[in-house]
Design brief:
Two copies of one chain form a homodimer. Chain A is an alpha+beta fold. Helices cover about 40% and strands about 20% of the residues of chain A. In chain A, the strands form two sheets. A six-stranded antiparallel β-sheet of chain A has the order 3-8-4-5-6-7. A two-stranded antiparallel ribbon of chain A has the order 1-2. Chains A and B meet through helix 5 and helix 6 of A and helix 5 and helix 6 of B. The structure holds a DNA duplex.
Chain lengths: ~220, ~220
DNA sequence: CATTATTTTTAGACATGCCTAAAAATTTAA
DNA sequence: TTAAATTTTTAGGCATGTCTAAAAATAATG
């Protein structure tokens, strides 16, 4: 198995993320946006990955991963999430500081290294943002009964089990407002005109969260209020 | 400070190693041998590094590092050695297994990461092969009174304080013969015709070591026999 | 010191991964 | 359902880092 370039690995990872969300073919422009490149570059790379049998690609119709492509993508995600866990748990990084470094570390090529790291961290199931860490065979345990905060019912108490790690600004915002993993939130009211939501944490004063925030937080139901 | 490519970093590191040994200008062919490239590639890169003011380069006369080039080289070596220490001390790698992975990890670009790692490892002074680890300001504490085993006096007892990490085969050989850091060796006899040496470890039977071995082991004097 | 031998540089190529601009295909909407 | 808008691909370029082959400079030797 010849090893892939960092670029190729990034493409596979992003295709995996995008098709996970949409459950269908991934568009050229969609990828270009995530990878900060131009559509023409995407086309070039998809042709190359297609020749390598890592993606199924049909001109003008987008692409999806082959089994082998998905296997590789999952291993990259495994590395990314284990390194993030290492940075937070062992080196005391803040959860908003780990993403960029993990983007570099995820390309280090050594199965022994990553399996040793997994053991060293005691086989963590979730990374610092609450995302599941694939095991060495590529199995991913998704948290059942996880919904987005934006979809949580009014007058319910929920617990934060996941935050979207993509935006540094969001993570800083959440940190600042004590919206960390494990925090319990009471959903008080929703405002359809701007999709914002009023919540309360413990006995702190009520706050309003924008759609941008609530759609990027994963929660699980705890109880009715 | 724009960041350098992996390739550029490797060039700086090797120039540092080579000029450390010879104390003078580094030749194109010398670099080519260490970097597994052709001389013409070296010339190209030296011209580039020269423009970036990281090396002093004169056509046909070889090169040496500028202050800035040396500063960068030392930081790469710091990263390499800290990662090796991490792999051995925390992830239980053997000393012969760490080199290739560290060659990858040394290019990860994050000052916070490497300084955190340094703290996590408790500011180690030497890596698993006995080489000194530069501190964050680039200071390197060379072990005074360290000589090569090949130069040790007959009828003296010495302690292994350093082994050359470059050869995987050598490291495996040393491991197999219990020639690890801290081991005390009695130097019994030298054979000028092939530069081999007879030694004894504790009360084990006497062994003969080739030049290839003794010139790649660093020792310090313990006592007369 | 003149002539080989060696080292180093130049010249020209190639693969990767990206770009812009223009053409082609697809989708949207009047 | 056909014209306009959007998406995607092609064509041609560019920088990086490497190579081979040939030329030039330096070093070694009789």
């Amino acid at each position: 198995m010849k090893s892939l370039s960092h670029s190729e690995e990034n493409y596979l990872k992003e295709i995996f993320h995008l098709s996970g969300l949409t459950e269908k073919r991934v568009s050229t422009n969609g990828l270009a946006a995530r990878l900060n490149t131009k559509a023409s570059s995407i086309t070039d790379m998809l042709q190359k990955l297609s020749e390598k049998k890592l993606v199924e690609y049909v001109k003008y119709k987008g692409c999806f991963l082959t089994e082998e492509g998905e296997r590789i993508a999952i291993q990259i995600i495994r590395k990314h999430r284990l390194w993030e866990t290492f940075l937070v748990n062992k080196l005391s990084f803040g959860w908003e500081e780990v993403h960029d470094v993990a983007e570099q570390l995820e390309h280090i090529d050594s199965t022994k290294l990553i399996d040793s790291l997994d053991r060293f961290l005691n086989y963590p199931k979730f990374d610092p943002h609450g995302d599941p860490i694939p095991d060495k065979d590529g199995n991913i345990v998704y948290r059942k009964s996880k919904i987005k905060l934006i979809d949580a019912a009014i007058n319910s108490r929920v617990e934060i089990v996941r935050v979207n790690e993509d935006s540094l600004a969001l993570l800083k915002f959440l940190e600042r407002h004590h919206l960390t993993l494990g925090t319990e939130i009471d959903v008080l009211e929703k405002f359809p005109f701007d999709d914002s939501m009023s919540i309360r944490i413990g006995d702190q004063p009520e706050t309003n969260l924008s759609k941008k925030v609530t759609e990027n937080i994963g929660v699980k139901f705890i109880s009715k209020l």
